[in-house]
Amino acid sequence: MAFRQSSKQRHRGPDQTGLCVNDEYGFVLVQERLSIVGVKTGRQPLTSTNGMTHLVANGEIYNFLHMASLINDALKFEYYTPRSDCDVLVAFYELFGADRLLQIVRGMFAFVMYDCSTHRLLVARDPVGIVPLYYGWDDAGSLWFASELKCLVGCCAEVNVFPPGHSYFGPRESFVPKPYFQALWMTEISTTRVDLELLKHHLESAVESHLQSEVPFGALLSGGLDSSLIASIATRILRARTDNSSFRLKTYSIGLEGESPDLTYARMVADHIGSHHTEVRFTIPEGIDLVRDAVYYAETYDVTTIRCIVAVMLLARAIRSEGIKVVLSGEGADELFGGYLYFHRAPSAAEFHRETVRRVRGLHLSDCLRANKGCAAWGLELRVPFLDTDFLQHVMSIRPEDRAPGIPSHDDHSALEKRILRQAFADGNYLPSEVLWRQKEQFSDGVGYAWIDAIAQWASKRVTQTEYAAAADRFPFNTPTTKEAFYYRKLFEQMFPGESFARTVQRWIPRTDWGCSEDPSGRKQDVHRGHNRREQE
């Protein structure tokens, strides 16, 4: 049954399916593999040399070479060669134990390990939740884990999101996830001033750590600040690494036929950094055709996520068709630096900080979910250097007065969101000034303003007034507040029946108590440069 249920997420790992059935110890492990590091040697499930510890893992361990060196230092008279980046998890656990493993590992990951010698289960998810993980129990009392919710439909009545930064180590009968990742910025407000050079260094180091791959890779390029910076930094690093000044990173952008702010700026960045650039264009009918698939693959009914993931899936399919398996992207910067336009309305520095903490801790249910699952729908891995653990720790430890938008002055740039990130890369010709100082456009807006209007109208027309009037009775949890939201909720209920599944979803909305519009589109915020013009029309 586990093999059959896992087939529902085979799109995530189309290269290989690995199976381990252990009747003696009562567990089954199935892994759908997208081979990127250790292509020929890293097939999963991975088993220790003594045959007693078994692992399935999803994601990338970015410091696996460092962990391998620590393993070799401890072995002294033997030499350990990792079969893949995830293989170090088994070897490191056996030598140093679960606690030290979770303290030192860096990457985006969700893994399940079973130690037959101690009858203990080790489950962990990265600090942000870049990689998804769910769990549930079936009627027989068996504990299930899966990267995607759909694998638990039909076998688990009660399901839960495995929280980011949490782990469990112990007998399966006592399973309760507990936090292993805790940071001062989660509860305290820093007074440390920004050091722009240090900020720049940390981001460059994060990007470099995310470039390990044995397969072709590229970068998403929306034309906004975040993805453009990542692509520019990666290009410089790869040119230096290969001693090839003419190296061209493959970059990709998407937008509506005939109307897309992002395509214009992405083309400008591609020309500036000398990338091999591809534009993917889609029509509104093509996007509408994917709405049902968007709900199925995203496993959510959140309006923002559905609006966004349609374009992500269209772009991922085009990229994968070129043989690319890995892409870099700019997710996470808006949460760390308060980049969403509603942050301009933060009533105080303390409230600004608390809201960035809330957004970072909710990434696994919003941007990370959309980016990971939208790309994984076509067997494409997405990496997010802004959410590197060490970079995350550095940025969130900067005082909120520096991370927040400044006070408007004669310098138009001082009031922009993410200003310290822009300032850190203002010198060195990383980006065209038009992009470096471009105002935030949310991805679903940037692909073409007409897309948001069209999908909202299309979805709303599929809900009658009678249906909508009964929304609170039909959906008492996360009751839809628009007909568009109601339609997505109906689709979700068809695919993922039961309130337990509905409770895995979090709605993304701005802070209405700050006087912001509830509509997640950035255009609805009064600080958007097109807002006042539209109000006058």
UniProtKB/TrEMBL annotation:
GO terms for biological process: asparagine biosynthetic process. Residues 1-173 form the Glutamine amidotransferase type-2 domain. It holds the Pfam family GATase_7. One of its GO terms (molecular function) is asparagine synthase (glutamine-hydrolyzing) activity. Keywords: Amino-acid biosynthesis, Asparagine biosynthesis, ATP-binding, Glutamine amidotransferase, Ligase, Nucleotide-binding. Residues 520-537 have a biased composition (Basic and acidic residues). Residues 514-537 are annotated as: Disordered. ATP binds at L220, I254, S329, G330. Pathway: Amino-acid biosynthesis; L-asparagine biosynthesis; L-asparagine from L-aspartate (L-Gln route): step 1/1. It catalyses: L-aspartate + L-glutamine + ATP + H2O = L-asparagine + L-glutamate + AMP + diphosphate + H(+). The keyword rRNA-binding does not apply. Transmembrane segments: none annotated. Its EC number is 6.3.5.4. Coiled coil: none annotated. The record marks E331 as: Important for beta-aspartyl-AMP intermediate formation. GO terms for cellular component: cytosol. This is Asparagine synthetase [glutamine-hydrolyzing]. It comes from Anopheles coluzzii.
